[in-house]
Amino acid sequence: MFRRTFNLIAIFxxxxxxxxxxxxxxxxxxxxxxxxxxxxxxAGADEDGVSEGETLCYRCRYGSSPxxxxxxxxxxxxxxxxxxxxxxxxxxxxxxxxxxxxxFYGDQADALRARAESLxxxxxxxxxxxxxxxxxxxxxxxxxxxxxxxxxxxxxxDSQVVSVEHFDGSVDFDRVAASIxxxxxxx
Length: 187
Fold this sequence. Notes:
By secondary structure, this protein is of the alpha/beta class. The protein has 5 helices and 7 strands. It has helices at 2-15, 58-62, 80-92, 109-122, 173-186; strands at residues 39-44, 55-56, 67-72, 99-104, 129-133, 151-157, 160-167. It has a 7-stranded mixed beta sheet. Helix 3 links the parallel strand 3 (67-72) and strand 4. The radius of gyration is 17 Å and the shape is globular. The chain starts with a helix and ends with a helix.
C-alpha cells in the first residue's frame, strides 16, 4: 500500500513539473521532454521557407530532428564565434538533420528585436534562424531558463533534452558540439 501511494505521489509530482522528491526543477534537465514555444524570426536560415517577421514554433517544425537551441539573455556576449561554430556544426551534421536556432529573450521586446537585428548584420550567413521568443521576458515558460546566465544552450534529440549548458561571458561551443555529436552517434 505504501509503495502504491508513493508511486502515485511521484507520478502526480512529475505531472506537476516537480522532481520525485517534490522540488521544482531549476531549469530543463537531461531526459526532460522538449516543449513547444513560439518565436518570431528576425533573420538567418534563408532557405528554411520561413519569412522574416513570421511567428511560429521552430521546435515543432524541427520535429524529432536533433537540435541545438541557444537562448541568449545578455547583450554582453559576443555571439559571432557561437554563430560560426553553430554553422559549422549544422553543416557537419546536415545528413543527420541537425537543426538549430539562436533565440533572444529578456525584459524588453523592442530591445531584443534590435539585438537580434544587430547580430544578423554582423554575421553574413547564419544557417540557423535568429529569433525572439514570444514569451520575451523569461523565454519559453516550460523551459524555466535561468535569469543569472548570459546564454543557455539546450541540445535535444527525438524531442528529448540531451543536455543543458549555461554560459557567462563566452560560450564553450566545443562542449556543446561534443554533447550533440555523442547524442547523434548513440541514436
